[in-house]
Amino acid sequence: MSPTYLYCLTAPAAPDPPPATVGLDGGVVRRLGDAWVSDVSSRSVKATVERIRAHDAVVSAALGTGSTPVPARFGQTFADDNECVAAISAKKETMSAGLARVAGMVEMTVLLHVSTPLDSSSGTAYLASLSRREHAMDELRAAARVINARLGDCVRESAERAGEGTVTLSHLVEREVLTMYMDRIRAMEVRAVGPSAPYSFGPPE
Amino acid sequence: MSAADEPLVLSDLISRVLDKGVVLSGDVVISIADIDLIKLELRVLLSAVETAIRREPHVPVLPDRARGA
Fold it and tell me: What is the edge-to-edge ordering of all strands in the sheet holding A155-163?
C-alpha cells in the first residue's frame, strides 16, 4: 500500500477535487474524509521547486472550488489512509477552528523589498552599505504600517514577516471585499500577490 | 508582477509552503536534495528545518545522505 500525502483540509460541505487534479509526482488527488490527498511512493519527500509548486497547485485548486481550505505544511506523509484519517480526527476541534477562521477568506501577500545591494569591495564600504540597508529596512517597516492603515477594514487579519532585505505582509481578506482591497492596493502603487490559500493564518496552536 | 519580481514571488511561495500550514503528522521528513532550491532559498529551508525540530524534537529531519538513503 502506498503512503498517503496530505495537501489540505476542507470544510465538510466543500466540493471534491476536480477529476484532473494531480499533485506530487503526478499523483491523482482524491478526497479522504475532509482532506485532499494523493498516493506517493515514499514517506520521505524531497523538497524540490517542482514538488513545492505541485503542493501549492493542489491547495490552490481547493481554494478555487469556492470553499477556503486549511493548507497543510509541505512534506506530511502517512503510512496509509487510515493513519491519515486518525491524525486528522485527533485534531478535529483544532481543524474546525482553523476552517472557521478562514471561511470565506483568501490570503493576499504584499512583498516589499529594498534595492540596496551590499558592497563587499572593502570593509568600510561593506559597513556603509549595511547601514544603508538597515535604514532602508526601517523605511520598509514604516511603509508596511502605512499600507495596513490604508487597507483598513478590507483586511480581517494581518501578519508581517521581515527577511533579508524584504518585508512580507500577509493579509486575510474576505472574498467579497477583494475588489475593494485591490483598488486600495493599486491606489498605493504597491503590488499584491494572490489570492492564495491562507497559509499564514492557520488554526490556533 | 513583473519578471524582475519572480524570484521574490517564488521565494515567498517556498517560504509559505515549507514553513507555514498546519502540521498533523508526527513524521514530517523533508529531504533536502535539490541544489537549485538550496541556492535559491537556503535560509527558508533552514528555518523550516528549525521549526520542524522545535515542534517535533524526536523526529529526524535530515538530508538523504545523512539518513543513509
Answer: A155-163, A166-174, A105-113, A192-196
Residues of chain B found within 8 Å of residue A60, distances taken between Cβ atoms: none
Residue that the C-alpha cell 478555487 belongs to: A64
- Which amino acid would we find at residue A135? H
Residue in A9, A47, A88 nearest the CB of B30: A47
Cα dihedral sign for A118, A111, B17, B56?
Answer: positive
Whose CA is closest to A4, among A80, A90, A74, A56?
Answer: A80
Q: Within its chain, how far is the Cα of A89 from the centroid?
A: 23
Q: Which residues of B touch A53 (CB under 8 A)?
A: 13
Closest to A169 measured CA to CA, from A102, A107, A109: A109
| B68: contact with A, CB 8 A cutoff | no
Contacting residues of B for A49, CB less than 8 Å apart: 10, 14, 34, 36-37, 40
Question: Is the distance from CB of A31 to CB of A66 less than 8 angstroms?
Answer: no
**Whole-number average pLDDT of chain B:** 62
ipTM at complex level: 0.85
Higher pLDDT, A30 or B43: A30
Q: What pTM, to 2 d.p., does this model score?
A: 0.82
Are A46 and B34 inside 8 Å of each other by CB? yes
pLDDT digits (tens, 9 = 90+) for A41-95: 988 888 888 899 999 999 999 999 999 999 999 989 999 999 999 999 999 999 9
The counts of H helices and E strands in chain B are 3, 1
User: Do the bridges between strand B30-31 and strand A45-46 make them parallel or antiparallel, or are there none, so unpaired?
Assistant: parallel
pLDDT of residue B39: 47
